[in-house]
Amino acid sequence: MDVLTTYRAFTGNASELAKAAIEYASAAKLEIDPDKTNERLIRYYQSEGVLDRPDRLGRDSTYHYRHLVQLLNARRMVMQGLPLAMAIEHNSQRSTDELEANLKAPLPNAAEVLVSRFKSIGTDKMASSMRQRSAPSRPPMAVVDVLAQVQDIKKELMSEIHSLRDMQSSVLMLRDDLERQLQKSQDQFHQVRDMLERLHQMNRHFEQMLMKSLDQQQEFEDERKKDRLETHHLMREMQLHQAKLNTLLTLLETKLP
Question: What is the spatial distance between Cα 50 and Cα 86, in angstroms, rounded to a whole number?
Answer without folding.
Answer: 9
